[in-house]
Amino acid sequence: GLYAVLPDAQWVARMVDLGVPTVQLRFKSDNTKSIQQEVQAAVKAVEGSRTHLFINDHWQVAIDAGAYGVHLGQEDMELASLDAIRTAGLRLGLSSHGYTEMLKACAVQPSYLALGAVFPTTLKRMATAPQGLGRLAMYAKLMHGRSMVAIGGIDQTNARSCFQEGASGVAVISVVT
Q1: How many Cα atoms within 13 Å fall on the side-chain side of residue 81?
Q2: What is the pTM of this model?
Q3: Position 145 confidence tier, pLDDT thresholds 50, 70, 90
């Protein structure tokens, strides 16, 4: 379904009120205390709701705050303790930008894999070209029924096509915020 990637806990609370099923807090800061406060506020915002909260990058803070899950990029996957994340009972989402990264991520059995950027995006500088719907469809077949979230340049004009090609969810950022 819909997976909203959000800049702060206030946005998380808004999406919970709207019934968005899955949200990710992608809070960018170098201040440890600010990160902890924002993650704790986001966890509090989803309490008692049906919304699942993933915390981007800050895996130890997510564990400490009792978040539902953690989302890691390829580089962060190398630095994080995947055992600690699993032992704490958190779900794990991983980013992938192509076939090699997809295989690497699948080897650690994530709860879902985010594949992107499917379409051109201006929100993040990408080292790879957009994957497109053809590759999305191919990756979905290779995933053998695993959960795959399409991300990158997704809006109301192209979300349906991502589902038609096999994505189980679509991650949106600017179309929401």
Answers
A1: 10
A2: 0.94
A3: confident
The answer for residues whose C-beta is within 8 angstroms of residue 76's C-beta and 6 or more apart is: 57, 59
| Distance (Å, whole) CA 12 – CA 5 | 9
CA distances from 147 to 60, 62, 109, 118 (A): 24, 21, 11, 16
Q: Which is nearest to 71 in space by CA: 53, 54, 89, 84?
A: 54
Reported as a single tens digit per residue, the pLDDT across 65-119 is 999 999 999 889 999 999 999 999 999 999 998 889 999 999 999 999 999 999 9
User: Looking at the chain, how many residues does it have?
Assistant: 177
Pairing status of strand 169-172 against strand 22-25? unpaired
Structure tokens at 49: 């709701």
Interacting residues of 103 by C-beta distance below 8 A, sequence separation 6+: none
- Binned at pLDDT 50, 70 and 90, residue 28 comes out as very high
